[in-house]
Write a structure and sequence with these properties.
Layout: E1 7-10, H1 16-27, E2 31-36, H2 39-49, E3 53-55, H3 61-74, E4 80-83, H4 102-117, H5 119-125, E5 128-132, H6 136-140, H7 156-178, E6 184-189, H8 203-214, H9 216-221, H10 227-230, H11 232-239, E7 251-253, E8 256-257, H12 267-281
Parallel strand pairs: 1-2, 1-4, 2-3, 4-5, 5-6, 6-7
Antiparallel strand pairs: 7-8
Helix pairs in contact: 3-4, 4-7, 4-12, 7-12
């Protein structure tokens, strides 16, 4: 895909693989739109890339709605939407202003809502939508489709694993519903990337990542990579052709379809997640 003048929206673009991907896509000629939570960091990235930028806190769905409406008005054509924002948070369960468990909302629900607001533009543009998942979906998720907000049993690792499985389920169900219209969604694992995604975690997770950031031995032991390398599959998905170079609805790692949690292929779970996400976001995706 020739990226000259293509419009690419990247959430979570103020740091980590989102920032790295934005930089690489800008270098390939794309019109990159930067989305971040932190105003100062987001502005810095936007100005460095000479790119438009917007801020929104995904723990507040009202801010996501406002962001979506601004993007919808500003960009009548969107070639690529990268749903990348998210993180792993505290050992103690946190609830957003919308009443949802924080990880579930920031990683999945906020992107589910944003995609809904932009849906008509994405369909008309025959866009590629790319969701950042993780190997944590396979290793950490204990998804209970009847307890999406983890009210019965919470751990920050489970919340993170569940959320990363949910973004893959989102891609599967999205393609069942809309793939025939030429719009495509996919998910991928970037690798064990050295970023600040665990900066708001505490306990064991925070200690491990703090140590890894400082220790070359830890980085080698866990095969950790920098954000530029971690963005490789993301940039490849954004710059190649769905249906030809990659298969929509699948989960990728190192540019190859890879297995993840067994529930990722369960259409009943995917449908239930979709319907509950609609209710929690207060939206209905159209039947087309």
């Amino acid at each position: 895909m020739n990226m000259n003048e293509k419009t690419v929206i990247v959430t979570g673009a103020s740091s980590g693989i989102g920032k790295a991907a934005a930089e690489q896509l800008k270098a390939k000629g794309a019109n990159v739109v930067i989305i971040g939570r932190d105003p100062e960091r987001t502005k810095a990235v936007g100005e460095a890339l000479n790119a438009p930028y917007y801020t929104a806190d995904f723990t507040d769905l009202a801010q996501v709605r406002e962001l979506g409406e601004k993007l919808h008005a500003a960009y009548p054509h969107i070639d690529v939407l990268i749903n990348n924002a998210g993180g792993i948070y505290r050992d103690k369960r946190e609830v957003t202003v919308d009443g949802n468990e924080r990880t579930f909302q920031t990683c999945h629900l906020a992107h589910f809502l944003l995609t809904n607001i932009l849906l008509d533009t994405l369909i008309e543009s025959k866009a590629s939508i790319i969701n950042t998942s993780s190997v944590g979906a396979a290793g950490l998720s204990k998804l209970d489709i009847h307890d999406l907000n983890l009210e019965k049993k919470y751990a920050n690792t489970i919340a993170y694993g569940n959320a990363k499985l949910e973004v893959t389920l989102f891609a599967k169900e999205f393609n069942r519903r809309y793939g025939k219209l030429g719009v495509n969604m996919v998910s991928f694992h970037p690798g064990n990337v050295l970023t600040n995604f665990a900066s708001e975690a505490d306990g064991f997770i925070h200690s491990m990542y703090s140590l890894a950031l400082k220790s070359k031995i830890m980085q080698a032991l866990f095969a950790m990579i920098g954000p530029e390398e971690g963005a490789d599959t993301l940039v490849w998905l954004a710059t190649t052709e769905p249906g030809k170079d990659w298969q929509p609805g699948n989960y990728y790692y190192k540019r190859r379809i890879t297995k993840t949690h067994k529930l990722a292929d369960d259409p009943v779970v995917a449908k239930s997640l979709w319907e509950q996400s609609e209710r929690l976001c207060g939206v209905t995706y159209p039947v087309l």
